[in-house]
Amino acid sequence: MRFMFIIKTDGQQTAGPPPAMMEAMHAMAQREVAAGRMISDGGLFPRDAGAEVSIRKRKLAVTDGPFAETKEVIGGFAVFELPDMAAAIQSARDFMELHVEHMPGWEGVCEVRQIAGSQVQMLRGG
Predict the structure, then answer these.
(1) Interval 96-118 mean pLDDT
(2) What backbone phi and psi angles, to 5 degrees, belong to 15?
(3) What is the distance between the alpha carbons of residues 91 and 47, in angstroms, rounded to a whole number?
(4) Are the C-beta atoms of residues 103 and 25 closer than 8 Å to each other?
(5) How many CA atoms, within 13 angstroms, populate the side-chain half-sphere of residue 95?
(6) Cα separation, 43 vs 63, whole angstroms
(7) What are residue 47's phi and psi, to 5 degrees?
(8) Most buried residue among 78, 92, 93, 96 by CB atoms closer than 10 A?
(9) With helix as H, strand as E and coil as C, how does 26-72 read?
(10) pLDDT greater than 90 at residue 49
């Protein structure tokens, strides 16, 4: 089963993670990749460097960042191959524990979502 972890914060975080947090995340990622569990991950550039493509009243619109204030901002993601939701939740807990240890005062959410069938995999014959 594949799961996506979506890391969300309140959008008020201006500085990136401290070096100790980056080292801890890198060590965890190396371990997860070596075990064949982590498939992909990445942090996201700030919202003001992005764009939104939306549909309103049946018309497409493109809006360049920065965007209006939001309550939550997606800061990063990871995709894992794990046996079940219980394993996914434990993995997310382990990751969030790094934040407790290395980023006191940081607040955020790691949303865990199972990934449905992949069109890309089907097109590739997988």
Answers:
(1) 92
(2) -95, 150
(3) 27
(4) no
(5) 27
(6) 21
(7) -60, -30
(8) 78
(9) HHHHHHHHHCCCEEEEEECCCHHHCEEEEEECCEEEEEECCCCCCCC
(10) no
Per DSSP, the residues of 15-27 read S---HHHHHHHHH
Amino acid letter for position 14 = T
Question: What pLDDT score was predicted for residue 60?
Answer: 95
- Give the three-class secondary structure for 93: helix
Please tell me the pTM assigned to this model: 0.83
What would the pLDDT profile of 51-83 be if each residue is shown by its tens digit?
999 999 999 999 998 777 677 888 899 999 999
Pick the CATH number of 2-124 from 3.30.70.1060, 3.40.50.1100, 3.10.450.590, 1.10.150.530: 3.30.70.1060
Domain positions in the chain: 2-124
Please state, in angstroms and rounded to a whole number, the distance separating the CA atoms of residues 55 and 59: 5
pLDDT bucket at 105, cuts 50 / 70 / 90: confident
Strands of the 73-81 sheet, one edge to the other: 38-43, 73-81, 2-9, 108-114
Say how far residue 36 (Cα) sits from the centre of its chain.
Answer: 18
